[in-house]
Specification:
Bound molecules: adenosine-5'-triphosphate
Helix content: 40-55%
Shape: elongated
CATH topology of the largest domain: Rossmann fold
Oligomer: single chain
Number of domains: 2
CATH class of the largest domain: Alpha Beta
CATH architecture of the largest domain: 3-Layer(aba) Sandwich
Largest sheet: 7 strands, mixed
């Protein structure tokens, strides 16, 4: 393999730049040309492709977002769109592709591989919702953003007798809610993997107040219900003073943490190694601090498992 491509796709996440840097530098280290595809799969179909040099990825390791830009493309979900992409790759003499993104992006990489173009997937999403890896690039940075917000809200919460509800990202996966809730000492964590009875939670809050508890923090993943809805039900059931904060896209931004930069560097470099070993159709990940790789189809087929022991612990510690 003499020329490889790299693209970022789906929602951006802090650390994607560090991953692109690793792909470029690792490729050049092995005398392979690396081409950047700008604007995800949409950019691929349009041939928005440029050769990247060592210096092209200088000064980006600390930046959030992705300098390659990301996009969502419906057209790329069709076989015609995918063929367009393959033609562009062939036109530029590229013979392997690293795709950094979430499970939707993996679907694209799987489709290209099935049509004879080798791709390797790198898990880049703040949601931590990809199977085949314990952690995704951007998750740790997002958690640190959320914990910063929780700590600040806790300061004001302890000055007033209020119930604070903080809505965090996570449509299908409760990882952000669980990890930040545990680290932030939240009284209640609402995750999409479990069924929740808000009225029951309100009852518990009342009991807490009777025991002298002055304030509470509830973390809700957006996939459960909106923070405002949780706030409305709790207000109705308890008449407590409730305040809702929806963190939204601040969770996507910011300079990546050390953990995310190191993870991105390791995963990006491993993806290049796999392509050079002739192993397309793989997805890289980290397990027990070791680099692992899976058949990308297998990685897509397996459900993402939230750490339920951690959830149990969070419940035990928030009595
Ligand atoms: P995030 O987890 O941040 O949402 P993602 O990678 O899952 O990231 P998606 O929007 O689901 O984000 O997917 C990104 C892009 O991947 C889509 O816009 C589309 O171009 C491509 N893609 C998604 N699903 C498929 C599919 N079934 N076949 C081919 N390409 C796909």
């Amino acid at each position: 393999m003499k020329k490889i491509g790299v693209l970022t796709s789906g929602g951006d996440s802090p650390g994607m730049n560090a991953a692109v840097r690793a792909v470029v530098r690792k490729g050049i280290y092995h005398n392979v040309e690396v081409h950047g595809i700008y604007g995800g799969y949409a950019g691929l179909m349009n041939g928005n492709i440029q050769k990247l040099e060592l210096g092209s990825v200088g000064d980006i390791i600390h930046r959030g977002g992705t300098f390659l830009q990301s996009a969502r493309s419906e057209e790329f979900k069709t076989r015609e769109g995918q063929q367009k992409g393959i033609q562009q790759l062939k036109k530029h003499g590229i013979d392997g592709l690293v795709v950094i993104g979430g499970d939707g992006s993996y679907m694209g990489a799987k489709a290209l591989t099935e049509q004879g173009f080798p791709c390797v997937g790198v898990p880049g999403t703040i949601d931590n919702d990809i199977s085949g890896t314990e952690f995704t690039i951007g998750f740790d940075t997002a958690l640190n953003t959320v914990i910063d917000a929780i700590d600040k809200i806790r300061d004001t919460a302890s000055s007033h007798e209020r119930t604070f509800i903080i809505e965090v990202m996570g449509r299908n996966a409760g990882d952000i809610a669980l990890w930040s809730g545990l680290a932030g000492g939240a009284e209640t964590i609402l995750i999409p993997e479990e069924k929740h009875d808000i009225k029951d939670i309100a009852l518990r809050l009342k009991k807490g107040q009777e025991r002298g508890k002055k304030h509470s923090i509830i973390i809700v993943a957006e996939g459960v219900m909106s923070g405002y809805e949780v706030g409305r039900i709790i207000k109705e059931e308890t008449d407590f003073d409730t305040r809702v904060t929806v963190l939204g896209h601040v969770q996507r931004g910011g300079s990546p943490t050390v953990k995310d930069r190191v993870l991105a560097s390791r995963l990006g470099a491993r993806a290049v190694e796999l392509l050079l070993e002739g192993k397309g159709g793989r997805a890289v990940g980290i397990e027990k601090n070791e680099m692992v790789d899976y058949d990308i189809i297998e990685a897509l087929g397996k459900p993402h498992n939230l750490d339920m022991n951690l959830y149990k612990l969070s419940k035990e510690l928030s009595i």
